[in-house]
From TrEMBL:
GO terms for cellular component: extracellular region; plant-type cell wall; plasmodesma. Belongs to the expansin family. Keywords: Secreted, Signal. This is Expansin-like A2. CDD domains: DPBB_EXLA_N. It comes from Gossypium harknessii. Residues 1-18 form the signal peptide. Residues 39-143 form the Expansin-like EG45 domain. Pfam families: DPBB_1, Expansin_C. Its main location: secreted. It is found in: Secreted.
Length: 259
């Protein structure tokens, strides 16, 4: 019966309210070093601090997804009602967690944000806490998906890019690049984390198309003019497109009124 009701909710409600926010149980610890997550496997570097105000997390491989989970947003709250608030905290994935004892390792700021007012130091003393978590859409108001040209890029053919401000509840699983006005697309491969590259970059101004998945659904998104012909390493370019799709996971936890 519960599964049937969950299925009906998928049919009757919008993607923003449907049964698409699965609730999971795990544990979370924290990094004592402030820069540990900004220099993580996703490759964001210092730019990570601009993704969620320093509320960052390393996630286990099943959530890191070989880098496809980089930039994903989660709401996490600890189960200790004496120390922790019911709201929890929102985090962005910037690293992989190789510690099998916990699902997440949070930045100190994010870990303390789970606590009730005045209880931050008390939760830090615990070191590890039981948590509930769910995937949530990333929100970047008035901010398009951005493409940063990495310093390793070398004209005329080698191009490495990093994706920033990926909104919604989505994953980018493929990228093609072509000269503006051309239909001769070359695929890019994931180098690591949020960084993609190709040794066959065309000359001239460049356009991109992204394969974006959101749970059961997937689609192409076309950014028609992104990099100018004189693109430069270290510069962030606006893609001109926003991604705000919401994933549907088909989970069994339909009651999230307490969230």
């Amino acid at each position: 019966m519960a599964l049937f009701i969950c299925f009906l909710s998928l049919l009757l409600f919008s993607s923003a309210t449907a049964c698409d926010r699965c609730l999971y149980q795990s544990k979370a610890a924290y990094f004592s070093k402030a820069n540990a997550l900004s220099s993580g496997a996703c490759g964001y570097g210092s730019l990570a601090l601009g993704l969620s105000g320093g509320h960052l997390a390393a996630a286990v491989s099943s959530l890191y997804k070989d880098g496809a989970g980089c930039g994903a947003c989660f709401q996490i709250r600890c189960n200790n009602s004496t120390l922790c608030s019911s709201k929890g905290t929102n985090v962005t994935i910037t690293d992989i967690n190789h510690n099998n004892q916990t699902g997440f390792v949070l930045s100190t700021r994010a870990f303390m944000a789970m606590a009730n007012h005045g209880m931050g130091q008390h939760i830090l003393k615990l070191g590890t806490v039981e948590v509930e978590y769910k995937r949530i859409p990333c929100e970047y108001k008035n901010q398009n998906l951005a493409v940063r040209v990495e310093e390793s890029s070398q004209k005329p053919n080698y191009l490495a890019i990093k994706l920033l401000y990926q909104g919604g509840q989505t994953e980018i699983v493929a990228i093609d690049v072509a000269q503006v006005g051309s239909s001769n697309w070359n695929f890019m491969k994931r180098n690591h984390g949020a960084v993609w590259d190709t040794s066959r970059a065309p000359n001239g101004a460049l356009q991109f198309r992204f394969v974006v998945t959101s749970g059961y659904d997937g689609k192409w998104i076309w950014a028609k003019t992104v990099l100018p012909a004189d693109w430069k390493s270290g510069v962030v370019y606006d893609s001109g497109v926003q991604i705000n799709d919401i994933a549907k996971e088909g989970c069994f936890h339909c009651d999230y009124s307490h969230w």
